Amino acid sequence: xxxxxxxxxxxxxxxxxxxxxxxHTSHHEKALxxxxxxxxxxxxxxxxxxxxxNLIIIAEATPGYxxxxxxxIQGHLDMVGDKAEGCDIDMEKEGPRVYIDGDFxxxxxxxxxxxxxxxxxxxxxLLDAKDGSIPHxxxxxxxxxxxxxxxxxxxxxxxxxxxxxxxxxxxxxxxxVLTAGCAGGRRAxxxxxxxxxxxxxxxxxxxxTGLLGGHSGMEIDxxxxxxxxxxxxxxMLLKESVPYSLVSFSAGVKxxxxxxxxxxxxxxxPGEEDALRKxxxxxxxxxxxxxxxxxxxxxxxxxxGKAGAFPALDDDxxxxxxxxxxxxxNGVQAMSMDLPGLVETSIxxxxxxxxxxxxxxxxxxxxxxxxxxxxxxxKVTLLAEQLGGRVDFQGDYPAWPFARNSRLRDLCVEIFAKxxxxxxxxxxxxxxxxxxxxxxxxxxLDCISFGPNxxxxxxxxxxxxxxxxxxxxxxxxxxxxxx
Length: 483
Ligand SMILES: [Zn+2]
Hints:
Elements lengths: L9 H11 L9 H13 L3 E4 L5 E5 L11 E6 L21 E4 L2 E4 L6 H15 L10 E6 L7 H5 L9 E4 L7 E6 L1 E10 L2 E14 L4 E2 L11 H12 L5 E8 L5 E2 L3 E7 L4 H19 L7 E15 L1 H13 L3 E5 L7 E12 L3 E10 L2 H17 L3 E8 L9 H14 L4 E5 L4 H8 L4 E4 L4 E2 L7 E3 H16 L2
Parallel strand pairs: 3-6, 3-7, 7-21, 8-20
Antiparallel strand pairs: 1-2, 2-6, 4-5, 5-23, 9-18, 9-19, 10-14, 10-15, 11-13, 12-14, 12-17, 16-17, 17-18, 22-23
Helix pairs in contact: 1-3, 5-7
Zinc ion (ZN) binds next to helix 3.
């Protein structure tokens, strides 16, 4: 007896528990992929598995649906493996230990993998109904690997068995929202050269803490501050009132995370300590005025060290660093004019770090319009080159542009309104979805993305709403049953 065996509809939760019983973190999806292949073969479905483990399973139309256009049902096999402190599960060898907590399915000490195990469970439950009890047109189930580590599976995949030009992606996590487009993106890494010379003075560490940070896709429009840019701004202002030399600078951890803190080490002349303190106070007042509601706990703290000689940047290099930190495009660049309130283009300065002979900036660029992504990339390049440096771009993935006309979206809205009694929200996601990759590979693909309510995904607190999973299953079946 499984933990979820009392839940209905039985096939959905049965397969969800089966999936949880098989370890399937990114790069370790083979066992789950093979499980799905066995499942498909036992039921006589055409099934293609590539070397990475990506799958396509094809179910022909049920009687009466032969003339309805085929549809792709899509999700990803891999999950993020994160666990709570003290948890002893090896997620490469063991799947999540699921349990029921009121309306939620959770995992003990680890991520649950409802993202995106629920999509796989829906697909298998659908394919399991060979008695025609779930009417549908030709369904092409596409399950990918390594979505969570840069959409690698979908990017490498060959879709030759797919005939459908309509696709339902089940990798969204707010019930009542139909995702109708997503940003494309890339990472930038700027190298700005600096020169050092021996300098002496009182060593001062300036530490910026308490910022809220957040995900550069989901939280870029929340008006929060960026520790790298903010510390750069303080150093720019300080130059006008307190002479100093810059020894070190470091802020942020990852391109796609808004930096929550950072520090700089500077040298000042003995006797300038009070002037520095005053500048810090003045700066904190400005921060309170600017970020008091969006990012209220920003603190800039000073630790005084000993006087001595240190290798610090020469004046020209310091100017290049301050220019880069203050003039690099950062934050929201444009809002969508199709869907008001949604970010269209953004860039996040995720990491800024001074090493021996260069300043390294690592950024994440996103846009739902590919030309806008190019424009931001060009701006970064232009400034880096002006400062005598260069930029490397990596990890490019395409946008899924919002289609002003979409028959599938209209159908999904109509069926949603019938089932729920109100209209769904249409949103663009300011992060990558596999719909972008598939749209690039299948000409004229009409896509929509939705899914049941899931919370705190990618964390050990991840949980999936049971009642929502039931409603979305009914919704999916209603869409498939439409003629
Ligand atoms: Zn996902």
